[in-house]
Amino acid sequence: MKTLTTVGEMQAAAAGVRSLGRTIGFVPTMGALHEGHLALVRRCRQESDVAVVSIFVNPAQFGPQEDYLNYPRDPERDTELLRRESVDILFAPLVEEIYPPDYQTYVSVERVSEPLCGRFRPGHFRGVATVVLKLFNIVQPHRAYFGRKDAQQSVIVQQLVRDLNLPIEIVVHPIVREPDGLAMSSRNAYLRGEDRQAALVLYRSLGRARELIERGERRADAVLREMRALIEQEPRARVDYIEVVDAASLQPLARIGGRTLIALAVWIGGARLIDNLLVEETPDGFRFHL
Ligand code: AMP
Question: Which atom of ligand 1 approaches the CA of 31 most closely?
């Protein structure tokens, strides 16, 4: 595995790979890698000739009161994990390489950035869209891999690629969970003591939503009411939002049908956790992606 840190080196490497007619698969991350990231890396490794992973904690996507400085970082462990997965190139630039002092261009994907996390994290998705577009221009991938854990992010990236005609296939991978159901996240490192157990309330509430829908419930407000009641039984939990939305437009739905995303963001102690359930209506009934 080669570790590259400059834009010039990475673009030259990408041009070299492309000139040989080989395909580039790309997994952007913020590091503190876990099995969720590694599932994307393995899929990327299988589906492309050359696998590139980036590690960059992007300051532009953190609000002024958010955890940019405390965000977990462990570059040595991450490098070793990626080496073991036979990644070809690790791109790990410094902040000044991506945002030099005179930096002034940002991209916003408009409507799909507004609801859900967009309401609670102003500017977050502008930072995400900007860094993703920059990384695409630097890594020049044929395919890029994102996790459905960050469902809104993957919708925004798909919209960005469509709107700006980027010749990149976006692959969205299922949520990887701990054995007890907690969605893996670098921020789970913030869960101290009893917070770890309390964090299961997100998964349990989505399981409850699934049960209700399996029993025939279609009213979004009925599902949301039960989810909220379940979460409110956990004194360590504070809800940012729980919503039932169309999985493509992210606009609220009154009834579950088509492709429905049930998404939530909940604070457990100092950790803001997100999770979701994708419900797909098929000719033989509902399929649940939890
Ligand atoms: P992050 O390092 O948190 O920016 O995540 C990098 C990529 O890994 C994003 O596309 C995430 O959606 C994805 N990812 C993070 N956690 C998980 C998970 N538990 N399951 C699947 N994908 C994940």
Answer: 2
Query: Looking at residue 215, what is its pLDDT?
Result: 97
Nearest CA to ligand 1 atom 7: 29
Nearest CA to ligand 1 atom 5: 29
Q: Where are the domains of the chain?
A: 2-173, 190-289
Catalytic annotation on 124? no
Joined tokens for residue 212? 């209700």
Centroid of ligand 1 to alpha carbon of 118 (angstroms): 18
The ligand 1 atom at the shortest distance from the C-alpha of residue 27 is 7
Decide yes or no: CATH 3.30.1300.10 for domain 190-289: yes
Q: pLDDT-derived band of residue 1, with 50, 70 and 90 as boundaries? A: very high
pLDDT band at residue 212 under the 50/70/90 scheme:
very high
Collapsing DSSP to helix, strand or coil, 204 comes out as helix
Name the architecture of domain 2-173: 3-Layer(aba) Sandwich (3.40)
Q: Supply 247's token pair.
A: 């999985």
Which residues lie closer than 8 Å to 185 by C-beta, 6 or more apart? 34, 36, 149, 273, 274
Atom of ligand 1 nearest to the CA of 174: 21
What's the DSSP call for residue 249?
T
Q: Which residues line ligand 1 (CB under 6 A)?
A: 29-30, 36-37, 40, 146-147, 149-150, 173, 175-176, 183-186
pLDDT band at 129 (very low <50, low <70, confident <90, very high): very high
Q: Give the separation between CA 290 and CA 278, rounded to whole angstroms.
A: 6
Contacts of 102 (CB under 8 A, 6+ apart): none
Q: How far is the centre of ligand 1, averaged over its atoms, from the C-alpha of 80 (Å)?
A: 18
The reported pLDDT for the residue numbered 278 is 98
* Three-state secondary-structure class, residue 286: strand
Residue owning the nearest CA to atom 17 of ligand 1? 36
